[in-house]
Every structure is written in C-alpha cells, then in structure tokens.
Amino acid sequence: MSDKSTAIHSSAANKAVPSVAGPPVNIVAFGWSLSTFFVITYVLCIALGLIIPEWEMHKPWLQFFPGFEWLTTQGFLIGLAEAFTYGWFVALVFAPLYNLFSARRGS
Q1: What is the distance between the alpha carbons of residues 58 and 56, in angstroms, rounded to a whole number?
Q2: SS3 for the chain, per residue?
Q3: CA spacing 20 to 30 A to 23: which of 29, 74, 89, 100?
C-alpha cells in the first residue's frame, strides 16, 4: 500500500473507534427502563400464551420465576414482581460495570 492509502485507512479506523468515553449510564434511568421493558415483555408473553395456548409460552416462566404458576393470580403477580426485580438486578450489575470499563477506555 502507498503511504497515502495507509493514511486514509488509518484515519478511517480512528474515526470508527473513538478514544473518548461517552457519558456514564444513569443507573436509575436504566433500571426503570429495563424493568419496565421486562414487565411489558412478560405481560405480552402471558397474553400470547392465553391467545395461543399450544405455543406453551408459560414453560420458560416456570424455569426463571420461582413460585410462578400458570393461570393463577398469585402466579401472575409473582412473575410480574420477579420480572421487575430482574430488570433492576441487571441494571445494578451492568451499569456500574459499563461505566467502569468505559471510563478506563477513555483514559
């Protein structure tokens, strides 16, 4: 490659991978958005399981949500609470790790 070609490729590579870290992830905003997303997904899966029972949408919930029972009020509420809790768990673990590694990359 010529020097001119190498300079173009090197310049393009530097633009694709910035060396400055972005803003840190706000743990509270991330926790609320992720928990809300998990709750909405849970409710949609339950609704789909009621509409198309042969798809057996409830089986994964039996594995991931201790105490979950299909088609009971208590089981639904337990799943709802656990979906919300899992969202916060992920946010409380992921956001600080992301912020830590993002800050290291920027320095």
Answers
A1: 5
A2: CCHHHHHHHHHHHHHHCCCCCCCCCCHHHHHHHHHHHHHHHHHHHHHHHHHCHHHCCCHHHHHHCCCCCCCCHHHHHHHHHHHHHHHHHHHHHHHHHHHHHHHHHHC
A3: 89
Residues 39 and 84: beta-carbon distance below 8 Å? yes
Do you know the residue count of the chain? 107
38 and 84 Cβ atoms separated by less than 8 Å:
yes
pLDDT per residue rounded down to tens, the chain (107 residues): 555 544 455 555 455 555 556 789 999 999 999 999 999 999 999 999 999 999 888 888 888 899 999 989 999 999 999 999 999 999 999 999 999 998 887 65
